[in-house]
Specification:
By secondary structure, the chain is an alpha/beta fold. About 35% of the residues lie in helices and about 20% in strands.
């Protein structure tokens, strides 16, 4: 029996970054026996701002995980910090390691075996595999396994249960207190009209004033507004939800929500510049029947849940076999 595939997931350790590579690695593991190890790396302060081409392993912070032999069969990395290593690992491993970079590296793109990139980024190349959104860890099984821990709190809530995922200020969008209050009023009206309940979670980017405005306006709506204490109920919210409302500032949240097969309603934000890639993603999700702009109602519809991370994992294994 062949040995399990060895996979390294390489990033700077930030959860939002790491989960993309980890989600892809776990999808590969669902298709073939594999052992996954994470490698968190950071560069010593004097060298962190150097161009990727000038960085060497000797410049890594001692707190980083070891980047040394025995080398993995599959290297899945994400984020700028990993680029100097991703472009060199094939040489270090004598060609053994298959190198996958998620997102658009924006540097030395031809030097990776495969780039798994969001279609809305518009990246092209022989080694580019496009998917709707980014790789992620959301699967029906994972959210089902998360549900029992929160069932006592959520199961009594009336249907339709509406999960609301709120982002925040970014380069492209803003969430002012006034806009947050208006969104909250529209959400409250929709939930009350349907006789349902609310399950809301904020992101770390949600401005405190916007968070306070939404919490105050929605406090009397049946449901649960997670205050950030205790275990994160996001996966349970997705499992128990009949509808998912997502602010338009996060490509990841929208694509993850679309993997559930639940109707995804896109909540408008205040644009700070042309929507660009976000508009392209939402158009893609709309064309696949997954998402629609929030119109103040909770109309229901069905579609085939997106399984883009699984599709990318299959492509990675096929490319590895074809080498």
């Amino acid at each position: 029996m062949p040995a399990p595939l060895s996979i390294w997931v390489v990033s700077d350790g930030r959860a939002g970054i790491e989960n993309q590579a980890l989600g892809l690695a776990e999808a590969v593991q669902r298709l073939t026996p594999a052992e996954i190890a994470t490698r968190h790396i950071r560069w010593r302060a004097p060298f962190d701002r150097l161009p990727s081409a000038l960085k060497t392993r000797a410049m890594l912070d001692p707190a980083s995980d070891a980047i040394a032999a025995p080398w993995p069969d599959l290297w899945i990395a994400t984020g700028r910090a990993a680029l100097p290593l991703s472009t060199r690992i094939k040489g270090w491993s004598g060609g053994k390691t298959f190198v996958v970079q998620t997102q658009d590296p924006r540097w030395a793109n031809a030097r990776y075996d495969m780039i798994v990139a969001p279609a809305h980024d518009g990246l092209s190349g022989d080694n580019v595999f496009e998917i709707t959104g980014s790789p992620h860890r959301i699967t029906p099984d994972r959210i089902a396994r998360a549900a029992p821990a929160f069932a006592d709190r959520i199961a009594p809530l009336p249907h339709p249960r509406v999960a609301v995922l709120v982002g925040g200020k970014s380069k492209a969008f803003d969430l002012t207190p006034a806009h947050a209050a208006d969104l909250a009023d529209r959400i409250a009206a929709a939930v009350r009209a349907a006789g349902g309940s609310l399950m809301l979670t904020f992101s770390r980017r949600t401005p405190e004033a916007a968070r306070a405005a939404m919490t105050a306006r929605l406090a009397e709506v049946p449901g649960w507004i997670w205050d950030g204490t205790g275990d994160n109920p996001l996966f349970a919210f997705l499992h128990f939800a009949d509808h998912v409302l997502v602010t338009e500032d996060s490509a990841n949240m929208a694509a993850e929500a679309a993997s559930t097969g639940k109707p995804v309603h896109i909540l408008p934000m205040i644009p700070l510049k042309p929507a660009g890639k976000f508009a392209r993603l939402h158009d893609d999700l709309r064309s696949r029947g997954a998402a629609r702009p929030f119109d103040g109602t909770l109309a229901a519809w069905t579609y085939e849940p997106l399984a883009e991370t699984d599709r990318a994992a299959q492509a990675v294994l096929e490319a590895m076999r074809a080498r």
